[in-house]
Fold these 2 entries.
Entry 1:
Amino acid sequence: DRVAHPLRADRSKLYMADLESALHYSLRVEAARASSLSGAQLTAFKCYVAILVKYFPGRPCVQTYLQTLDAWLRNWTEPELPRTVLKEAMKNNRDASHPSVLPTNVTWVGCQGSERHFRGYPCGLWTIFHLLTVQAAQNGPDKELPLEVLNTMRCYVRHFFGCQECAEHFEAMAAKSMDRVASREEAVLWLWSHHNEVNARLAGKGGCHQARGDTEDPKFPKLQWPPPDLCPQCHKEERGVHAWEEPAVVTFLKAHFSPANIYMDHAE
Ligand code: FAD
């Protein structure tokens, strides 16, 4: 039985099963809906895969999978990429001397909802992009290409995220302030604070949406994250009003979204 009980997952950990499930879904399901990719949509897809190769801390077979797909996409110079051709290129190859495998099953652990239609993919996609912004900040010069990951996320969400309303909300937030991000560390904080803005907007709004995971799971109420039990030092009070201790938040995010904090349980 590969399905974990949602309330038993440790909220202070990341789970490789969530990350790989979200990767599989984002590449093979959401990005492969259109009968073909071209123009800005094809560019967005190529950028997403290229960023994953650079910053996703995957298992060796998954790294090989991403590298193989990236190399294949770089070779694809025609303006249009038919879905049938892309789907073939995204298949696993277990027989090669270096297996190239991204599991095709979807198993939610930390992102599992109390019911099927809650959480899952949207939770996994947030987690991937937080992890990527943090890895980009840890593995590159702070002032160079500060928007590398955020721009890729913005394009991916605009062109592929199945929740149209979410994509519009995210685009509105990005258009307002993303271009003021001046360093990789600021990019980490931008995504964190805007995710909290979404959490605040959705808090208490249960039960109105279709089966997309984009409403509040009553067992996982939306909160300003990380809550005090996960990071007491992230919180302070200024004249009786709650405030964030930002340097502590950065330290916390760098530790939380780090390869060392990813549990391998339930990964294939
Ligand atoms: P999620 O909000 O999905 O968070 C996943 C995990 O990330 C949490 O369990 C926690 O561990 C961690 N986390 C939480 N907050 C933060 C933070 N601030 N920084 C870092 N890590 C954090 N739904 C709508 O109904 N309307 C929308 O407009 C909408 N917009 C969305 C835009 C995007 C880009 C995405 C990816 C999703 C959007 N959703 C929207 C879905 C919604 O935000 C949740 O993903 C969904 O409701 C599932 O919530 P969850 O409880 O699993 O936690």
Note: The chain is about 50% helix and 5% strand.
Entry 2:
Amino acid sequence: SRSHAFYGNAEQAGIRTPPQRYTFFMTFDLTTTQRTELQVLLARWSAAIAQLTKGQTIGQVEPVRDYGVGFDTGEALDLGPASLTVTVGLGLKVFTDTYGLAQHKPPLLRELKQLPSDAMKPELTGGDLSLQACADDPQVAYHAIRDLARIAKDTGAASTRWTVMGFGRASAGKGQSTPRNLLGYKDGTRNIMETADFEKFVWIKDGPAWQRYGSYQVVRKIQMHIENWDTDRVSNQNDVFGRHKVSGAPLSGVKEFDTPDFQKTGADGNLVIPATAHIALAAHENNNGLKILRRSYNYTDGINNVGLLDAGLLFISYQNDPAAFETLQTKLGASDGLNEYISHIGSGIFFVPPAPPVGSYIGGSLFV
Ligand code: HEM
């Protein structure tokens, strides 16, 4: 199966990489106050990720000595690399005096504004480090996170905080077919695909050299009220998104990739794509050209305590300024027709440093 190199690109894999089919996302709290322990964790994670993305184990599965405990837990043996990428994010607490790193804080890294539409659960919010493992085999993604969490525990530097398992991609990259989210709509039709847009909207291009080709990762666990949605007329669902359910075409057009016409009016004189439609609010045409990269996944947590389906979207966006997300979410939160059917219940923001040079590790140049 396909393998994505850990070293070799300016940026970390898993952002521009066309979305793999599955994700396992986890955040961690820092539990150490020692700079060197954070350093050891990032170095060990990097070395392990470099191995895992080649489809190799990160230590003995069946130890040579019969009193040995296995290091690699083994469940990904024989599954190959499965296009695995693991993208590492650093939260605000990393850039503090505790670790002697306050002066290195990426200038735009800050807590996201609390928005009126938020319904955050503290246990699904925050985190000092993030790992997004994506792969075409769910067990490969799971194994990567499990063994990286083991390393975190082993170093004593960090403990697990919140996690989401995504079972289906809900975003498209260049050359990919557009998948569907759990509301049944094609998601990722108009996403960032071209290099020029990555350069303009995703990668950090200024500041100290070690931050360049980094990006800001915004993560939202967005619960869907699926049973309500399913009782809604499809014509109303189409108005909520501004697109047709089956074809994915904008209501102003016929084919998926037709450019939406937000001015077009129907025989009744009303806008064909309602002004409160999700795409009308989020489109770059209506936001001074603003774009973000979406790299989201469908998730499920089974059923809740009253027997309703507990599922939604693990929304992940990358942008070179977190304000881009806030601008769009502020607009969506105020008038999106979708709000009746979703709740933002989890949130995190992380700086994703660029890929390290060969032989170094993620964030390594911070400690020089
Ligand atoms: C477009 C679904 C949350 C930003 C779309 C589309 C769908 C969709 C079906 C149209 C297809 C496409 O162009 O990709 C959802 C669902 C969400 C959600 C189900 C929550 C559960 C968000 C959030 C943001 C966002 C939180 C940003 C704050 C966008 C943008 C577009 C888009 C920028 C492209 C609009 C365009 O250029 O036409 N979304 N979305 N979405 N969404 Fe969302």
Note: The pocket of protoporphyrin IX containing FE is lined by residues 181, 183, 185-191, 220, 222, 224, 241, 243, 260, 278-279, 282-284, 292, 313, 315, 325, 328-329, 332, 342 (CB under 6 Å).
